[in-house]
Write a structure and sequence with these properties.
By secondary structure, the protein is mostly helical. It is built from six helices and two strands, in the order βααααβαα.
């Protein structure tokens, strides 16, 4: 995606899936064992990819599947300069106005007016 005129290059958000051990969990030792010694196996990472095709973070699993999916390299390239998508509730206020603005611009709406209106809507919803 090209950047805005006179601005920085456009960069995507990169979504990630993660597991963690909850600080107040009742079975922390079991959870730690599961996260550290089961979730880190290439077999599981490949199985997760096959169930929901998202590029695995585990390089051993990525090496196993990278020749089987022609789109995988495209996703990796697109995400190289991306920023990790913030995992905050305020992001919910962004998607609706952003998506509507994007659709309006694709449909021929004035870019400046549409982007400014979306920014105003988003700013008013994030406190």
């Amino acid at each position: 995606m090209p950047g805005f005129a006179g601005g920085q290059p456009a960069t995507p958000f990169v979504g990630v899936q993660a597991f963690y051990v909850a600080a107040k969990g009742k079975n922390k030792a079991l959870a730690q064992e599961f996260v550290a010694n089961y979730l880190t196996t290439p077999d599981l990472a490949v199985a997760l990819y096959q169930a929901e095709p998202r590029p695995p973070a585990l390089t051993a699993a990525l090496d196993q599947i990278k020749g089987t999916d022609p789109d995988l390299a495209k996703f990796q390239e697109a995400g190289k300069s991306g920023a990790v998508l913030p995992a905050i509730p305020e992001m919910a206020a962004i998607w609706d106005p952003f998506g509507k603005a994007e659709a309006a611009i694709i449909g021929g709406a004035d870019v400046t007016t549409t982007v400014n209106a979306a920014a105003k809507t988003i700013s008013s919803q994030i406190k």
